[in-house]
Amino acid sequence: MDAPSYAFADRAWHGPVRVAEHVRLARDTYRLRVECPVVAQRIVPGQFVMVRLAGCNDPLLGRPLALYETYDGGDARPAGIDIVYVAMGKFTRRVVVAARLGDALELWGPLGNGFAPRTAKHLVMVAGGIGQTPFLALAREALGQRRYGDPPRSAPRAQRVTLCYGTRTSDLLAGVDDFRRLGVEVQLSTDDGSAGHHGLVVDLLRQILTGDRDGLRVVCCGPEKMMAATAKMCRESGVRCDVSLESPMACGVGICFSCVTKVRDGGGWDYRRTCVEGPVFDAEQVMFD
Amino acid sequence: MSAAGMGERMPQDPNVDLRVQLGRLHLPNPVMVGSGTFGYAREMAGLVDLSRLGAILPKTVTSQPRAGNAPWRTVETTGGMLNSIGLDNDGLEVFCEKHLPYLRGLKAPVVVSIAGRDYDDFVGMAARLSREEGIAAIELNISCPNVSHGVDFGTDAAMCERVVRGCREACGFPIIAKLTPNVTNIVEIAEAAAQGGADAVSAINTCLGMAVDWRRARPLLGNVMGGLSGPAIKPIALSAVYRIAKAGVKIPIIGIGGIATIDDVMEFIVAGATAVQIGTANFYDPTVTMRILDQLPAALEELKVRSVSEAVGLLLRRQKLAH
User: Fold this and answer.
1) Which of B116, B232, B234, B283 is deepest in the core (most CB within 10 A)?
2) What pLDDT digit, counting tens, does each position of A13-38 carry?
3) Beta strand segments in chain A, E
4) Residue B217 domain flag
5) A140-174 pLDDT per residue, tens
6) Hey, is the C-beta of B44 within 8 angstroms of any chain A C-beta?
7) How many pairs of residues across A and B have Cβ atoms under 8 Å apart?
8) What ipTM was reported for this prediction?
9) In which domain, by residue range, is B166 found?
């Protein structure tokens, strides 16, 4: 049996947070900036926080949201974090209202393992839907533009970082300029052809994989089918791929056992908690149905 | 700080005695955490001062490993959540090797929650645990709605009494029976647990429930039905505690069900609970137990009592006076 390594919430902070900024990035997509210096100083790319409407019984539970980016305060130290979300469900629609009215939000984090710093000449980030959110901070770190964590961790520098980003339609593409500003090469796809490649985001990855694969590293986040296709393509090309899973969670800290995913274990499999054993997994370990 | 107070992280209010007694089980305070809502405690070490808790109940353990149910395992509902985790755990031996050493190193009392397939399985687990040190009590999970096979120790009084007696004879630790609300008369099951020698009953486990996606015409939970918990079930839990207390069942009650604030805790205590378990609130408010512990002495003082035990069942005593 593989010995699982756990990313428990040992350095998590829990408390009310003030909304510092709330900006619409696309049709239903928003960037929420919240003040939480302790979290911002400790968090690394690929980690997440749980956000809840303070004192609210409906919706009752918090929701896991990935770190998009940290921002600095006056003292040039991280003062808070940006989170990018789509307002499409009961919770997220209420967050839009709460952010406008200045209603209190509660937050706990940083949570999860995050992306381990890995050497790569070319980092390719494959995102579908709202799956681009964990990649902005990762790109910034890989390009040597920011260090994350407390103490700040060092990460090997990549020569190139590419974002392959697909959505159903162009209205849903969010934060593309944030990536371009860092120097990330952005390739887009839409299901309806309204922007970029008319087709699937994995078509873009396929093109890259047919080129120079030396020092290539792939990370992927998005709908399960798309992650499964990415994982398969990378396996066939002999390229390392890490996936960041988006499982529904109740607690985010490993106590409820809701967010389990099937992970290979010896010759069989076992359910593992996405929150404390992930959300980032080696794609080879994950059993996509 | 006086020498006697050294090492005490919590500023104890000298005017209020928080200690409670549940049969042979003595707890430093009545604020426990419910099994299945606190992992194996290690998960919460960074968020909560575990040493302050009245008792810790790790996730229910079964004799053999169980993978648990297929996702989705939880669904949020109005004011609550449904779960069908299905007692995902690595089995009793792994529990004793991997989790118990950590748990017994904590200052808080540890109550081990067990679920057996049948009578022999329950009693065998109790006997196995009796060889372990650092266990304050055993809670018999005779009420999980997600693993039932039609016959339940939680719904049949005679079966309940027998399994409690068997476990009590098999091990020296205090025994708690955790009751299900999914019965016609919970008082009858509580009586049976008392007859069998339980030190306390805990009430309630989750209420059977379901959530449906009508557009796809399918259930939302992987296991179709699950257990409802959270603030939505608090009135049901309160009435269960009240009925058991009012019926004069001779053993103490641990109130469980939607407890999320100090007011909730006090409501359960005056309705007849000697202690409480915080469950689902740990999921959405991970430091809730610390806040409740901070607020408990003042709430008791507001009732003009000097101890938790004076407040237990106050509502029933007031009712008697009124008649």
Assistant:
1) B283
2) 999 999 999 999 999 999 999 999 99
3) 13-24, 29-35, 48-53, 63-66, 69-72, 78-86, 105-111, 122-128, 160-167, 185-190, 197-198, 216-221, 240-244, 260-265, 268-273, 280-282
4) no
5) 999 999 999 999 999 999 999 999 999 999 999 99
6) yes
7) 102
8) 0.96
9) 3-68+86-212+226-322
